[in-house]
Amino acid sequence: MSQTLSAHLIATFENDPLTPVVVAYSGGPDSTALLHALATLPRRPPLRALHVDHGLQAESASWAAHCRRFCEDLDVPLAVVRVSVDLSRGDGTESAARRARRAAFVGHVRPGERLVLAHHRDDQMETVLLKLLRGAGPEGLGGMRERRSLGAGEQWRPVLDLPREALLAHVARHALDTVHDPSNDDPRVARAVLRARVMPALAGLWPQAARSIVHSARLCRDAADTLEGAWAPRLTALTRADGSLDAAGWLGLPPALRIPLLDRWLHDAGRDAPTSAQREALERQIREAALDRLPQMGWLGTEVRLWRGRLWAMPRAEPFDAAWEIPWRGEPVALPGGGTLTLDAARLPQPVTVRYRRGGETLRPAGDRHTRELRDLFQRDGVPPWERPRIPLIHDPDGRLIAVGDRWFTAEAEALFDAAGARPAWRR
C-alpha cells in the first residue's frame, strides 16, 4: 500500500486546515477510520460528527450509543439524527434509506461546512458496476463525484482515491472498535452481492480491475461534464416558469443530450429518474400520442404527463374518494384528493359544503355577465386535467356552486368571504 490514510489526509488538508468539517459517521469501519484519522491530525480542522439513525435494525439504538462513546473519547461533538425511512415509493429499502439520510445531511450541514463521507475506491468501483448493469450513460458511469454542493455547505469524499484496505489498516493499527450492519451482507442487496462475490472474482482474475474501472469512471465524468455544457442551456430554453418541459424540443435532441437533460429536469422537480426502458417507453408514448389522449408514464414515486405539447413531472397520484363531502365553516381541512383547504383564522356564520367535481357544474364568476360551465373555465385558464378532479368545490346551503377552490368566486361567495374577513386558500 503506497500511502496510509493519515498521510493522505495530512496532504489533503495541509492547504486548507481551517474549513469546518462534519463527518458522516455510521460507526462502521470506513467512517470510523476517517473520523479517527481526522481527529488525530497534527493540524486538526474544526470537527464534529453526524450519525443518522435509520431505525431499520434492532441494534440501531446501540449503534448510536457506541458512536456517542467513541466521539466522547476523541473529544468530537456528535449529533444523532433519527430519521423516518419512507418505503412507500417502491424503490427499495436501500434507496429509501439513502434518500432519508441525504435529507438529514442537508438539514444539518451548517453554512460553509464540509460534510465528509468515507467512500473509497472500492465503493466507487461498486457504484460504476451497478450503473453499468443498469444501462447508465456517461453521467452514471462517472460514478460518485468527489465534491458537490449540499444544502448550505458542501459534500466531500476526501478518500475516494484510496482503496478500502487503507481504511481497514487504520482501524487495525489503532485497534478501533466498530459496528457491523448486517444489511451489508444481505444477498438481496445488489451492493452486498458485488462486494462479496463479484469484486473478489474480478480482483482474482484482473488485479488492476479497480484502478482500471475507476480510471474509466474519470473519463466518463469528464465526458459528462463536457456534455452538460451543451444540454444545460437547452434545459433552460425548454423549461417554463411552471416547470413544464417542451416535449418536441426535448425529443429533437440527440440521445447524448436528451437523456441527461431529462434526468436533471426530473431532479430539479424533486422526482426520480427513469430506467432506460422507462425513458424509451415515455419517448414512444409522446411520439405516438393522439391529439385526444394524455400520455403518462409512472415509475417509483414519479409520474410524467404530456399535455398541450409539454411534459409535466409530479408525484404519482394516489386514488381518492371522489364522492367525499363535508360541511365546512373555515376550519383547516385535509382533503382526500391532496392539499389543505383553509380560511386562515376566519369562520363562516353557517356551514357551506365542500366536495369534488361530479360533472355538469356551472358557475357565474363575479364580474362576468355569463354563467360558465366549469369545464370551459378549466380549459380557458389552462388548469391541467389531472388537477381538475382534485380541486375542492364550495356549495352554499342550497347546493349552488359558489367557489372553485381559490380560483373563481360568485358575487355571493365574495360577499360571504369578505364578511368573514378571508378568502379560501387551497394549499396543494
Mind explaining what this structure looks like?
- This protein is α+β, with helices and mostly antiparallel strands and 428 residues long.
- 40% of the residues lie in helices and 17% in strands.
- The chain contains 14 helices and 20 strands.
- A 6-stranded mixed beta sheet has the order 3-2-1-4-6-5, with helices on both faces.
- Strand 12 and strand 13 form a beta hairpin.
- The chain starts with a helix and ends with a strand.
Could you tell me the strand content as a percent range?
15-25%
Low-confidence stretches: none
Strand order of the largest sheet: 3-2-1-4-6-5
Which class of secondary structure composition applies to the elements?
Answer: alpha+beta
Termini separation comes to 56 Å
State the helicity in percent bands: 40-55%
Using DSSP, what is the number of strands?
20
Which key terms come to mind for this protein?
6-stranded mixed beta sheet, 5-stranded antiparallel beta sheet, alpha+beta, 14 helices, 428 residues
Set out the fold topology.
Layout: H1 5-13, E1 21-24, H2 29-39, E2 47-53, H3 60-74, E3 78-82, H4 93-108, E4 114-116, H5 121-133, H6 138-141, E5 147-150, E6 153-156, H7 164-173, H8 190-205, H9 209-238, E7 245-246, H10 247-251, H11 255-268, H12 276-288, E8 296-299, E9 302-307, E10 310-315, E11 325-328, E12 333-334, E13 340-342, E14 352-355, E15 362-363, E16 372-373, H13 374-380, E17 393-395, E18 401-404, E19 408-409, H14 411-420, E20 425-427
Parallel strand pairs: 1-2, 1-4, 2-3, 4-6
Antiparallel strand pairs: 5-6, 7-10, 8-9, 9-10, 11-14, 12-13, 13-20, 14-17, 15-16, 17-18, 18-19
Helix pairs in contact: 2-7, 5-8, 5-9, 9-11
